[in-house]
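Input sequence (204 aa), recorded before submission:
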Amino acid sequence: MHILKEAVQKAELLVDGCGYEVNAVTLCIDTNTCLCMHEAGVTVRASFGGRSADFVTETPTEARTKLSYLFDAPLTKRLQQSAAAAVLNVLSGFLCMSRRLRACSPEKHEPCFSELQDRIQGKTLFCAGTLFAIREAFPSQIITDISTADLVLVNGDGILGEDGQKLGDVLDTIPNERILFIGPSAAGVSSILHLEHFCPYGRA
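Predicted structure, token format:
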């Protein structure tokens, strides 16, 4: 199962019977935000229940929707997946499952990358998503076989499309400690699936 679809199904169970599914979720494009160094694209800000969270994507959209629409959506198109990921981000913030919902300021990029470097030094890596900074800094460590990588790195872009399907296919076959979600856009899926999330300087 696609990792995003699995996260949506678990999110539906989390709010079942709470009445939240009928409440409005607003998605708006915001071009004035800081971007995480591990993400690329346009920021979609999702707002729900007085909380807001960002998701950075190459397929941004604006809409007013409900959680119930997310639970029934096929999520076969990348635009739908981006919207769903944004909704999961703000839902995780609303439920106090994640507090890293927006990117840090640019002066935090260097210490962030230094901390990440300590985590991945000497390990083989599979990159799900763009992750340009990591691909440029550690080209000799990157491999193409997700099942044999010492560490699977996932940004927000990595939970969409084919990469998201690859992740879903291996979730039950590789240990959770070999999967590391990176950046605020991955906050929702990682927290709902109880997988590790690296975003030390992200903002609430």
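Checked by second reader. Residues 74 and 80 are 8 Å apart (CA to CA).
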